[in-house]
Amino acid sequence: MQISVKSCWTFIQHSWSFSMGSAYQFHxxxxxxxxxxxxxxxSVVALTFMPESPRFYLEVGKHxxxxxxxxxxxxTNMRARGQPEKVFTVNRIxxxxxxxxxxxxxxxxSNAVSKVIFRVKTELYGIWxxxxxxxxxxxxxxxxxxAIVWFTLSFGYYGLSVWFPDVIKHLQADEYxxxxxxxxxxxxxxxxxxxxxxxxxxxxxxxxxDRFVNMKFKSVTFINTTFQNCYFEDVTSVGCFFxxxxxxxAFFYNTDIDDSKLINTKVTNCSFHHNKTGCQMTFDxxxxxxxxxxxxxxxxxxxxxxxxxxALLMDKIGRLSMLGFSMxxxxxSCFFLWFGTSEAMMxxxxxxxxxxxxxxxxxxxxxxxxxxxxDRRGTxxxxxxxxxxxxxxxxxxxxxxxxxxxxxxxxxxxxxxxVGGGLVGLRxxxxxxxxxx
Length: 437
Hints:
The protein is an alpha/beta fold. Helix content is 56%, strand content 16%. It has 13 helices and 16 strands.
C-alpha cells in the first residue's frame, strides 16, 4: 500500500503528457495505472509457483499431493530450526468430506449442466453451513465480538480517511477565499494581459480593445462585465466564469472559454476558432489536488512505525492488549482534531491516528485467525472482512456528507466507535499461547 501511494504521488503530480494520434493524450495518471498493474501481474506469475493448500488436496481426494506439501513445510521448518535430520511422520489425517462425493450421488443420467448447477448449489450450501457454525458454541461469542471490533475499526478508520483530506481541502479553500481581490467599476482600455489573473472578482467592469494573449485565468469571476473589441489567444481558464456579461466584437483563438463558462452571458458578433478541448487542469492550476495525494502519502507513510512496533511487541504484550489499547488511543487522538485549525496540525493528527490504528489492524488479523478452528477459519475471516468492507462504505458515505457541515459530529462519532470497539476487543479470549485448532 505504501508503494502504491508513493507511486501515485510521484507520477500523477507531473503534468507531462504525449500524444498518440490526433486525439489520444497519454497523461501521467495513465503511467500510474500501469505501475499499479505491475504488482498484480507479478502476483499472478508468482502464484503459479506456490503449492496448493493441503486441505484442498484432501477435499478433492489427492492424498499423496497433500502429504508431499506437508512434508515440504515440515522440512523447511526443521531446516530453519537447525534440525534438518528430523523425519516427517504423520500419525493421523482427518479427511474432510469431498465435494465430488455429493456430486456423484446425483443421478448419473443428469446432463453436464445439471451437474454443474448441483455442484454450485452444494458448494453454496456448504459455505452456508460453515458460516452458521461460526454462530454456534463455542465460537458464537467470539464471532459477535469480532464482528463488532471489525465494524467499528473499519467504520472509524475509513470514514476518517475520507474526512481528513476533504477537511484540509476546505481549510485551503477558506484561506484562498479570504485572499480574493475585488475589482469594482473598473475601465481597462488598450491593455495587453500576458500574465496570470488569479483569485479575483470583477464586477461592473468594462474592457475595451484589450488583448488577452498566452495567459491564464485562475479562479477569476466576471460579473456584469462588458468586453468590447477584445482579442483572446492561447487562453486557459480554471475555475473562471463570466456571469451576466456581454461580449461585443470579440475574437477567440485557441482558448477553452465555452458555453459552460459563459453563464447568462450575451455574445454579439464574436468568433471562436480552434477551441481547446478536454481537461486543461494541472497540479499547478489546482494545488488542492496535489495535496490530496501528498496527504495520503504522508498518512500512509506514518503506518510504518506502527507496523514495526506491532511486529516486535505483539508476542510480548499480547494481541488483545495491542488491539484494545491501540483502538482506544486512536479514539482519544481523534479528540485533538477539535483543535486543528491549520493544514499542518491536521496532517500531524492524521499521521498520529494512522500510526496508532495500524497496530490494531495487525492485531485484529492475528486474533481473528487464531480464534477460529481450521474448518471455520476461512469462512469466519471472510465474514469479518465482508463486514469490514460494508462498514468502510458506510463510513465513507456518512463522514463524506459531514465534511462541509460540522466538525463535531465526525470527531465524536469516530472517537465513540473506536473506543467502544477497543473495549469490546479487550473482552476477547487471549490466544497468545494457544495452539491453532
